[in-house]
Amino acid sequence: MYPVELTIPMAKDLTAHGFTSLTSAEDVNAALGAEEGTALLVVNSVCGCAAANARPGAKMASLNETAPDNLYTVFAGVDREATATAREHLLPYPPSSPAIGLFKDGKLVHFLERHHIEGRSAEIIAENLKMAFDRYC
Questions:
Q1: Any idea which residues carry the catalytic annotation?
Q2: Could you give the C-alpha distances from 88 to 62, 65, 92, 109, 128, in angstroms and in order?
């Protein structure tokens, strides 16, 4: 677990952009289990690829003309219960952070694992997400 003081600016990077922080299993189940609508979930992390690629890419993509109804985030290494529950919704993919999942009507329809994020620019990640938004949102 990381000290909350260390992660506050990293969490605010998304919440200041309209993402809702999910901090409990109940929050996650209510958000991702919605039977109607679309939701983007960013599994946030302290690693450099989250700061340089995942968070900026998700923020850029969220400005797309077609975007998810809801934007959510959990913080791996901070919100343990929420992250564990989010990872249940992300099955069959193994735990990954950072990671970005798109849900439609309570079902995972698009997923970027860490290896899809690492080494790719925020712009490439944003374009990948925008294509998914155009298809599913």
A1: 47, 49
A2: 24, 30, 8, 14, 23
What is d(CA 19, CA 35) in angstroms, rounded to the nearest whole number? 20
AA identity, residue 73: T
What pLDDT score does 46 carry?
Answer: 85
Please report, in angstroms and rounded to a whole number, the separation of the first and last CA atoms in the chain: 34
Nearest to 82 by CA among 69, 72, 91: 72
Could you say which DSSP state residue 44 is in? E
What rounded mean pLDDT belongs to the chain?
94
Which pLDDT tens digit goes with each residue over 77-134? 899 999 999 999 999 999 999 999 999 999 999 999 999 999 999 999 999 999 999 9
Q: Select the CATH number that applies to the domain covering 4-136 from these four: 3.40.30.10, 3.10.50.40, 3.40.50.300, 3.30.360.10.
A: 3.40.30.10
